[in-house]
Each structure stands twice: as structure tokens, then as C-alpha cells.
Amino acid sequence: MAEAAEIRVQVCYATPARQILRELQVVEGATLHVAIRQSGMLDEASEIDLSVLHVGVFGKRKSLDDVLRNGDRVEIYRPLIADPKDSRRRRADKKAG
After folding, report:
1. Residues 6+ apart with CB under 8 A from 89
2. Sheet of strand 54-57, all strands in order from the earlier edge strand to the far edge
3. For residue 1, is it within any domain?
4. Under 8 Å CB-to-CB from 46, ≥6 apart: which residues?
5. What is this structure's pTM?
6. Strand, helix or coil at 83?
7. Over the chain, what is the mean pLDDT?
8. What is the CATH number of the domain that holds 24?
9. pLDDT tens, N- to C-terminus, the chain (97 residues)
10. What's the CA gap between 7 and 72, in Å, rounded?
11. What's the rounded Cα separation, in Å, for the pair 67 and 85?
12. How many Cα atoms occupy the beta-carbon half-sphere of 6 within 13 Å?
């Protein structure tokens, strides 16, 4: 019986205090959700709630059910603390004043 082909992916998550990056192999056809669970990230960072947080691949938002390709980097996004537009506006105002 032929063994299932595997692909290599990364799973990453970052907070202001730490960064977690896991390289792993998953079975070809695996979803983002499978890779995240297999990485052990949910055990290591208990604040990760996939029912609330968004995920993506290389900076593009994806669904947990999307199928991974070899070399993909799965990213778990935490909520923004501040609106980026407001932050830029405040910096510009500070610079001008």
C-alpha cells in the first residue's frame, strides 16, 4: 500500500511578548485547521481561540478549511489593538505639530 505524500508547512503566531514558529510535515490535502492542531500551537498558546481569531497564508486571509500547499506559512492573527488608519493619523498630527 502506498504511503500518503506529505508536504512541509510552517505555523506561526506572535504576540508582543513572544513569537512561536513551528515547521512540520502534514499529509498532502491537509487544511489550515489540521496543520494548526498538529503543530501543538493550541496547547502552547492557550489564548488562541480559532472560533474568534482569523488565519491566513502568507498575509492573505484564509478559511480553516482551505487546503495547504507545500511551503505554505500558516499565520494565526490576533486582534488589532488600534485601527491602523487612526495610528497613522496620530503620528502625522504629531509630526506636523
Report:
1. none
2. 19-27, 6-14, 73-77, 54-57, 60-62
3. no
4. none
5. 0.79
6. coil
7. 90
8. 3.10.20.280
9. 667 899 999 999 998 889 999 999 999 999 999 999 999 999 999 999 999 999 999 999 999 999 999 999 999 998 766 666 776 777 777 777 6
10. 9
11. 32
12. 9
End-to-end alpha carbon distance in the chain: 72
Angle subtended at Cα 60 by Cα 27 and Cα 58, rounded to the nearest 5 degrees = 60
Beta strand extents in the chain (DSSP E only): 6-14, 19-27, 54-57, 60-62, 73-77
Query: Could you give the number of structural domains in the chain?
Result: 1
- Distances in Å between the Cα of 95 and the Cα atoms of 30, 88, 90 are 48, 11, 9
Residue 20 included in any domain: yes
Phi, psi of 20 (to 5 degrees): -125, 125
